[in-house]
Structure formats: structure tokens, C-alpha cells
Amino acid sequence: MPDPTATVTEVAGRRLRLTHLDRVLYPRTGYTKAAVLRYYTLVAPAMLPHLLGRPASFLRLPEGVEGQRFWAKRVPPGAPAWVTGLEVRHRQETMRQAVVADLPTLLWAANLGCLEFHVPQWRAEPRTHDRLIIDLDPGEGTSVVECCLVALTARELLAADGLRCWPKTTGSKGLHLSVPLVQTPAARVAGYARELARRLRQSLPDLVVDQMAKQLRAGRVFVDWSQNNSAKTTVVAYSLRARPEPTVSAPLEWREVTDCRRPEQLVFTADQVERRLREAGDPHAGLADPAQAGELPPNG
Fold this sequence. Notes:
Elements: E1 7-11, E2 14-18, E3 24-26, E4 31-32, H1 33-51, E5 57-60, E6 70-72, E7 85-90, E8 93-98, H2 103-111, E9 114-119, E10 128-138, H3 144-160, E11 166-169, E12 175-185, H4 186-203, E13 208-209, E14 221-223, E15 234-235, H5 254-259, H6 270-280
Parallel strand pairs: 13-14
Antiparallel strand pairs: 1-2, 3-4, 5-6, 5-9, 7-8, 9-15, 10-12, 10-14, 11-12
């Protein structure tokens, strides 16, 4: 029997069947599935370069942020033939994961209830990375304001090593700094990340912790260097977050990091990010430029 909630449309030459468009996925704000699809359509030109070539992990919430949530890595049965995939080894098995290569694939995933998109720091081959992530996670008693202070010091240390970084919010409480690299062995990237975290702790001993133990994080910012492990993934720039309101992992200008004095200054909803992108362009446009990719220092 035909689904009365379904709408069939064509996007970039691909046929898409969209369902439950009036379903409210964020009850606090009334943000619907149709609004989610519209948001991803508008930000796709800026978002897709961060997804291209990388196996995606989807956080799916088909009933919305107050319903059941689950991670999806495998390309699901019934996926359109045009959804591209990548065979990825996970511990004892290999699975085919979707690569979000275009707008139809992005909307196909969002229609499945995927609110969050996460990818690793590598493309195609996990043994070499083309991106370094500095994940700044505020402990109890701190906020994104303290993360900004750490981010500014991290930028200085990276610049001294000949590397550039681009900041974004996590869409939750912290910050990410993204560093484009030439293809570099994964173990070397992970080692550099660990050493950078140690250097940040030495530079800001009263503010930074680089150890995993949660009891050490109160009043400090944890530099989570482990995000550079090949098995780890990070939320993509412009992805929605599965929080009470439709907040976004939003790319930032460095002046916004420098000027941050209150946590709410760096909280952006989908509507705000749409407006920012329309009026000021994409702060992360340079991140996808191959010419910006740096090399780790010889001892890195």
C-alpha cells in the first residue's frame, strides 16, 4: 500500500522518496523533518567537501531528539544504487559504509533520520591521514570560553610548526580545530597530536589536562588527542547535533574565538548558520584547498 506521507522528488537527477516531512524532530522548537532537509540542502555546498571521500557514520533519530537514537555505519538494505560506499575494516569484520558524495546522498541520509554526520580524519585508506583534529572538551566548571583560550595557544604552537588550523564549535560545549595535512602515516599524526596536547598542558598548566581520567578534568579543558586514532570519528562541520535545540557544529572566524567572553556567543542554531553562510560566506572554505595542506615537522 502506498505511504500517504511520502513525497517523491528529484534532486540533481536522482529520485528521492521523502517521508514524514511534518514530523517534529526537535520538540522544544518545533523544528520538523522538512526543516532539517531544507537546512542540509542550503548548507550542502559548504558541508560536502568535509564529507567527500570519507566513510560516514550516521547518528539516526527517526522519531526525533526525544526518541530512540542509534549509530548506523553500514549502508542499509534498500539504499539506492547510486549511494557510493567504502569497505572499512572494523576489528574483526569489514563493512560497507556510505560516502556522502553529493546532495542526493546527503538528503537520502537525512530522510532516514540521520541528524548527525561523523567522519574519520582519513579518506579511503585509514593508514594515512589528511587531517589533524584538536578536540577541546571543557570539564566541569569551564566552558567554551576557556576552550577559546586554549585554542589561541594551540594556533600559536601549530603556526610555529608551519601548520594552519580552522576553528569550529562542536555544536555541544567545546571546540574543534581542524588542520589539513598532506597524506601522513596515521601513527605519526597520532603521535604529533599526543605531543601537542602535552605542549599545551605545559604552556597552560592551570587550564589544560591531557590525560583521559575524568576526575582530572574539573576546572580544566581536556585536549582529546585520541580523536586522531584511525578508528575514531568527529562530527562534520555544518552537521546538526542531536540536542534539545537544532544546534550546529559551526565554523568560526578566529576573531570570534578571540572575542568570546560568554558561552552563548558561540552557540548557533540551524537558522543562524544558514544566515551566517548567506551573509558572510564559509569560514572553512580554505580548509578544503589542497594548497593549505601542511606537513608535520620532522620531529613531529
